[in-house]
């Protein structure tokens, strides 16, 4: 699968752009703030129906305008099938996603059609920030490969909000009965979410270790594991045991919304004991392993976005990364860099089949 061309109107700092891409490697070079990441975010948005950097749809509209539009044309199954996807947003009118001219009933129906993996500087949050970031990674990852998981996590979050709202309201008419029903439903859905996450991490962990060994020339060992209360105790029992505490606190203290993914190097948290290079290699290994599992689940190679990934990597690790992504297991790749000399040196070793774009002030020029 690859993105043949994209048309953009009023997305972030991009007033208007129409670009055709290589099925292999596409590189964007320019100063920081020029618009490289905004183009990458537009490609992500066409797959995931939202910005990769946490902006609301309204915040993604170009300053002074009241709408944006993204139009992507894709080739799937080695050119035998094509998809046209249009994502638009208008202030006061909301978001519309269309596939081949037909609007989706629900935006979530689109997730997984066009698989994609992004590596960016923001990924450091997976190591340094709270478990929210790692759960967000798990949810985004699994939502692309498992429709049942996406349905389950949406339902879980809705039920959790309902339960917390009830707890905040305090005891009232029918309080116990409503809480019993919510707990039963939450336990059922949460148990399903937990099982799918645990299964995925079991498959992910050895791939991460394998890729990290390649990137680090096998200098140290890393581990990925899943931390959840549900591993030792059924969710229904946890909810019952925590009910009184939940009443006092006004929110739910147990469940898969508190799960975490542990990232360790030589048996210690990589957040505390890993160097910047080791942490960057761990993140790259995590995303490359994610790529493999999505490819196997979907039967097509996801688009790979490498946004400003070469900083804080020594040349040995850069060389190893180039060797990995130039293999046949990868397909279309987008790479951004502010250093044109470095990028051209990388391209010379990566492939002869590429397109290079110079980016300035939200405009793009093919070189």
Please provide a brief summary of the model.
The chain has 367 residues and is an alpha/beta fold. The protein has 10 helices and 15 strands.
Structure explained in plain terms:
The protein is α/β, with parallel strands linked by helices. The protein contains ten helices and 15 strands. It has helices at residues 36-48, 125-128, 131-145, 147-169, 175-215, 235-249, 270-273, 276-298, 315-325, 340-350; strands at residues 2-11, 14-20, 25-29, 67-76, 81-90, 94-99, 102-103, 116-119, 222-227, 260-265, 268-269, 303-307, 333-337, 354-360, 363-366. A six-stranded antiparallel β-sheet has the order 2-1-4-5-6-7, covered by helices on one side. A six-stranded mixed β-sheet has the order 8-12-13-3-14-15, with helices on both faces. Strands 9-10-11 form a three-stranded antiparallel β-sheet. A hairpin with a 3-residue loop joins strand 5 and strand 6 (94-99). Helix 3 crosses helix 4 and helix 4 crosses helix 5. The longest helix is centred in the middle third of the chain and has 41 residues, at 175-215. It is globular and about 70 Å long.
Structure annotation, total helices: 10
- The ordered H/E elements are EEEHEEEEEHHHHEHEEHHEHEHEE
What class, by secondary structure content?
A: alpha/beta
Rg measurement, Å: 22 Å
Mass-distribution shape:
globular
- List unreliable stretches of 5+ residues: none
* Main sheet summary: 6 strands, antiparallel
Please tell me the overall pLDDT.
92
β-strand amount: 15-25%
Which sequence of strands runs across the widest sheet? 2-1-4-5-6-7
Helix proportion range: 40-55%
């Amino acid at each position: 699968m690859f993105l043949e061309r994209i048309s953009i109107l009023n997305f972030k700092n991009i007033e208007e752009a129409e670009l055709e891409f290589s099925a292999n490697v596409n590189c964007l070079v320019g100063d920081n703030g020029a618009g490289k990441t905004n183009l990458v975010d537009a490609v992500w948005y066409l797959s995931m129906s939202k910005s990769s950097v946490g902006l609301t749809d309204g915040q993604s509209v170009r300053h002074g305008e009241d709408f944006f539009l993204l139009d992507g044309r894709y080739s799937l199954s080695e050119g035998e099938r094509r998809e046209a996807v249009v994502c638009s947003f208008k202030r006061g009118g909301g978001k519309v996603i269309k596939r081949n001219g037909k609007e989706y009933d629900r935006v979530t129906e689109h997730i997984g059609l066009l698989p994609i993996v992004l590596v960016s500087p923001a990924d450091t949050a997976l190591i340094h920030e709270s478990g929210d970031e790692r759960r967000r990674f798990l949810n985004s990852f699994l939502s692309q490969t498992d429709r049942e998981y996406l349905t389950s996590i949406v339902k879980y979050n809705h039920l959790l909000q309902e339960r917390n709202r009830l707890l905040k309201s305090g005891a009232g008419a029918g309080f116990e009965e409503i809480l019993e029903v919510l707990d039963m439903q939450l336990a059922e859905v949460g148990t399903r979410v937990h099982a799918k996450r645990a299964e995925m991490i079991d498959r992910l962990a050895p791939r991460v270790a394998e890729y990290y060994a390649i990137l680090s020339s096998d200098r140290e060992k890393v581990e990925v594991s899943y931390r959840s209360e549900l591993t030792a105790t059924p969710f229904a029992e946890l909810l019952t045991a925590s009910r009184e505490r939940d009443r006092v606190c006004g929110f739910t203290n147990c469940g898969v919304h508190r799960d975490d993914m542990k990232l360790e190097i030589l048996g210690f948290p990589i957040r505390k004991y890993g160097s910047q290079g080791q942490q960057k290699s761990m993140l790259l290994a995590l995303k490359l392993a994610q790529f493999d599992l999505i490819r196997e689940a979907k039967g097509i190679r996801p688009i790979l976005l490498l946004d400003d990934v070469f900083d804080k990597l020594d040349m040995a690790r850069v060389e190893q990364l180039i060797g990995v992504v130039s293999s046949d297991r990868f397909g279309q790749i987008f790479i951004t860099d502010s250093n044109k000399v470095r990028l051209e040196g990388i391209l010379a070793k990566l492939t002869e089949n590429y397109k290079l774009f110079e980016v300035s002030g939200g405009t793009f020029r093919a070189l």
